[in-house]
Amino acid sequence: MLKDFEGIVKQGSHDERLLLQIDQEKLPRHVAVIMDGNGRWAARRRRPRAAGHRAGAESVRAVVETSARLGIPVLTLYAFSTENWKRPDAEVQALMALLREYMRRELIAIKKNNIRFRVIGRIEELDPDIQRGLHEGMLETAENTGMQLNIGLNYSGRAELIDAIRSIAGAVRRGEVGPGEIDEPMLDRHLYTAGLPDPDLLIRTSGEMRLSNFMLWQVAYSEIYVTDTFWPDFRRTDFLTAILEYQRRERRYGGVLEPTVSGAGPILTRKLGLI
To answer: Annotated catalytic, 36?
Structure first.
């Protein structure tokens, strides 16, 4: 794994020690991140909130690069929720300007590093020029075979579920499926994240203990890692620490771990009636 970080991680550094502890065979297939704390980061420095969002863009770059180098298949970043429209107009416009700048500046690096770019959310409600940039980015990286980078824009977990239900209802009206055929796999296929594994790890920065309407269906069994670090200060070291914490946990999916009869190691057994 260290060879993938040659030239960017110093020998003997804390990051190198973290990398040496990571088990390549136990990496999460999908990491989702609630990027929180930009405003408070700026307030503590007596700077405008827009400065916090701009500083947070550097953290995006660091986390995307680290994820790709580790070999994590899917990374989803929560960038702008449907509730964020309630913020002051100046802040919203600053966020949109930063998004335009990010797409112009980072698309080259995304393509160069074989990353697929995808947006989840109601992007049809964004400004037309932003929509064009996003669709161009998705089209130009569609054939890439490396990590998939999802950006949640104008995203809401509840809205995603409503959109999925409407889509299934349309299929029922057209006679393509019967009501009795509706099940969890069908709902999965109608979500924005169709075809992707659910997040194994959900990271939230800034210490807040809530999901904030993010991927409500998909994170049902995600391991949740919360750090007090504000998003603009979140870097490679923080991300590697989160991965290591994830790898230390036992994932039971509602079951319990019991020793095998031979004592060779734990096996996963599901106890009826236990969640």
So the answer is: yes
Per-residue pLDDT reduced to its tens digit, 148-190: 999 999 999 999 999 999 999 999 999 999 999 999 999 999 9
Q: State the pLDDT at residue 103.
A: 86
Residue 124 in domain: yes
Q: Is residue 8 part of a domain?
A: no
Active-site annotation holder among 4, 84, 188, 213 = 84
* Banded model confidence at residue 272, pLDDT cuts 50, 70, 90: very low
The single residue of 4, 15, 23, 36 carrying the catalytic annotation is 36
Total-model pTM: 0.90
Is 171 domain-assigned?
yes
Known active-site residue 84: yes
Supply the CATH number for residue 265's domain.
3.40.1180.10
Number of domains in the chain: 1
Q: Which domain holds residue 201?
A: 26-269
Residues 225-262: tens digit of each pLDDT: 999 999 999 999 999 999 999 999 988 777 766 665 55
3-state per-residue secondary structure call for the chain:
CHHHHCCCCCCCCHHHHHHHHCCHHHCCCEEEEECCCHHHHHHHCCCCHHHHHHHHHHHHHHHHHHHHHHCCCEEEEEEEEHHHHHCCHHHHHHHHHHHHHHHHHHHHHHHHCCCEEEEECCHHHCCHHHHHHHHHHHHHHCCCCCCEEEEEEEECHHHHHHHHHHHHHHHHHCCCCCHHHCCHHHHHHCCCCCCCCCCCEEEECCCCCCCCCCCCCCCCCCEEEECCCCHHHCCHHHHHHHHHHHHHCCCCCCCEEEECCCCCCEEEECCCCCC
**Is residue 15 in a domain?**
no
